[in-house]
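sry for the spam today, last one i promise. struct tokens for design, 608 residues
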């Protein structure tokens, strides 16, 4: 039915309202849609807010850490050492001592708690009225040949004494079951015709003492223009072949009988000196003039210890020695060398790693480490973008050109002169072909007994009592293998005081050998025993040889500065080019070579 408005012919007036209402409904619907969207995505929005907040926190943390890192690095660079010396052996302490007046911040870092390295003196009774030194490493030096070491000893005001006292006779020889003298080896008659020389030598080899026989054989082999004393690396045989390309034993065997080589090996103080190592090196060493052997009243390790003392005393604020810190890794950041040191602990001469570590920064680094210890150090990030530096691997290859010689030294302390049981005491050394190789009566000490040692058998007797020190073994090379098996698994880190009764295989074996050599029925157990196995020490060897075929002049120069563009250097007797390699002189010689070549770098501000 039509509405009233329609009947009146009027248009409805509510239509616009409807559109308004409709428009309003759309607005309401839109508002409802936004609210619904927010409600339905509240978790997502909250997550986004949390992510943004987290990112802001991370950025803030990074900025704080960067600020802290930059602050610490700036502080570390400000306190960065001018020179860090790694190792407190002879070469390390000598390096620091030579820099004592260079007006620089220098620190020496040592793995163990002891200064000295392979210069090590044991004093069984330091409180004795006449203490005697037991040299576990370097025994003596040659003043005429070892000029740098000799000069240093005098500057340090140490007291040289003769290694062989004037009243000591030449060594006794115990060879092939016989007690002999050097004169007995001069016999021109062969053994089968009543001669005293127990070796079956050729006719032209008879009648010569070991040093004369060695010169005779080398004279037949060497070219006339070869000078082993000054240029051993260039020495050639009569066929024009360089000696450094040959093994020493192979070289000798071309002219000498096997018996002659055996005689040279058995009468040498060390078996390694007639081994088949580099012929140029060993020929030069065996021809060294060993007259005038000197040792030190204070002990041979007084040299590195006095060097360290004077180094620190010259500037206590800037010169430091840090012990029980082993270098594990070296990196380069912003032109400086950052080093990570593992803290160690030393107890009863045994050094072990701890969990703690520390960082030290230096502008220059001198590695005064033997080859095995140097090989353990990791060089990282010297080249940008490379995790492990390629030069580190090249250094590892260069170190393989060096051969470690195993070595062992043993000392026994006795309360009685058991060796005088049947004859007058032998005061001279004994050299033998048996595995102990060398026996030396070092001396007598007078020790006042402690109250705790007097016991019920004593009353008020407190008079000094004699103690006698024997070096009962000083061996290397093939003899080492025999004694190493006697030590078993009890040896650790190279140094050990052992059981003094015959329950020890080493003590039992040495005791039987001493009875055989000295011709006595009974040798009492020692009061004290001290053994050094240098092969199980951090140096991993008693000494080092350049391997056969190595042109050591080039290798020594490359090892002195492994990376030509870096201020990281290497010193030590093992890297000395030539026969100096087996002497303490080699340690100081390599330091002098370094400073001579890089004087401006180390002493530039003083040398201008």
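last one done:
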């Amino acid at each position: 039915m039509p509405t009233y408005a329609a009947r009146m012919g009027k248009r409805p007036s509510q239509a616009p309202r409807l559109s308004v209402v409709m428009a309003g409904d759309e607005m309401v619907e839109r508002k409802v849609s936004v609210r619904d969207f927010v409600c339905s995505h509240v978790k997502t929005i909250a997550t986004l807010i949390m992510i943004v907040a987290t990112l802001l926190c991370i950025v803030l943390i990074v900025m704080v850490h960067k600020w802290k890192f930059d602050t610490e690095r700036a502080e570390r660079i400000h306190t960065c050492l001018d020179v860090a010396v790694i190792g407190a052996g002879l070469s390390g302490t000598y390096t620091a001592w030579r820099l004592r007046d260079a007006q620089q911040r220098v620190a020496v870092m040592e793995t163990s708690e002891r200064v000295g390295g392979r210069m090590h003196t044991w004093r069984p009774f330091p409180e004795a009225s006449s203490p005697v030194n037991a040299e576990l490493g370097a025994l003596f030096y040659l003043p005429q040949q070892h000029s740098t070491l000799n000069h240093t000893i005098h500057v340090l005001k140490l007291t040289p004494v003769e290694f062989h006292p004037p009243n000591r006779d030449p060594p006794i020889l115990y060879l092939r079951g016989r007690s002999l003298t050097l004169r007995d080896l001069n016999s021109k008659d062969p053994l089968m015709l009543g001669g005293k020389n127990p070796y079956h030598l050729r006719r032209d080899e008879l009648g010569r003492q070991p040093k004369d026989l060695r010169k005779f054989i080398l004279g037949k082999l060497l070219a006339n223009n070869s000078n082993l004393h000054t240029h051993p690396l260039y020495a050639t045989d009569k066929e024009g072949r360089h000696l450094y390309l040959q093994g020493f034993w192979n070289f000798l065997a071309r002219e000498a009988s096997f018996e002659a080589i055996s005689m040279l090996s058995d009468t040498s103080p060390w078996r390694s000196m007639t081994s088949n190592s580099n012929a140029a090196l060993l020929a030069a060493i065996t021809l060294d003039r060993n007259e005038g052997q000197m040792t030190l009243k204070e002990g041979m390790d007084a040299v590195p210890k006095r060097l360290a003392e004077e180094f620190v005393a010259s500037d206590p604020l800037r010169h430091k020695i840090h012990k029980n810190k082993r270098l594990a890794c070296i990196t380069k950041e912003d032109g400086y060398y950052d080093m990570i040191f593992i803290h160690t602990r030393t107890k009863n001469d045994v050094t072990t790693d701890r969990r703690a570590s520390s960082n030290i920064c230096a502008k220059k680094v001198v590695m005064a480490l033997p080859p095995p210890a140097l090989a353990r150090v990791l060089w990282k990030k010297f080249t940008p973008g490379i995790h492990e530096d390629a030069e580190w691997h090249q250094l590892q290859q260069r170190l393989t050109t060096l051969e470690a010689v195993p070595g062992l030294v043993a000392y026994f302390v006795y309360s009685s002169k058991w060796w005088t049981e049947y004859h007058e005491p032998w005061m001279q050394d004994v050299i033998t072909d048996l595995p102990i190789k060398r026996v030396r009566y070092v001396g007598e000490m007078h020790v006042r007994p402690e109250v705790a040692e007097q016991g019920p058998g004593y009353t008020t007797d407190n008079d000094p009592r004699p103690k006698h020190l024997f070096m009962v073994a000083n061996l290397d090379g093939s003899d080492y293998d025999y004694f190493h098996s006697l030590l078993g698994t009890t040896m650790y880190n190279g140094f050990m005081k052992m059981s003094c009764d015959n329950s020890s295989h080493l003590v039992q074996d040495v005791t039987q050998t001493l009875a055989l050599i000295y011709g006595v029925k009974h040798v009492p157990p020692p009061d004290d025993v001290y053994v050094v196995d240098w092969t199980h020490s951090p140096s991993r060897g008693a000494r080092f040889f350049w391997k056969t075929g190595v042109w050591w002049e080039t290798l020594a120069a490359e090892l002195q500065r492994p990376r030509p563009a870096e201020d990281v250097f290497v010193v030590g007797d093992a890297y000395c080019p030539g026969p100096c390699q087996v002497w303490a002189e080699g340690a100081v010689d390599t330091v002098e070579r370094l400073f001579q070549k890089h004087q401006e770098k180390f002493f530039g501000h003083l040398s201008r």
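The longest helix spans residues 42-78. ok im logging off now
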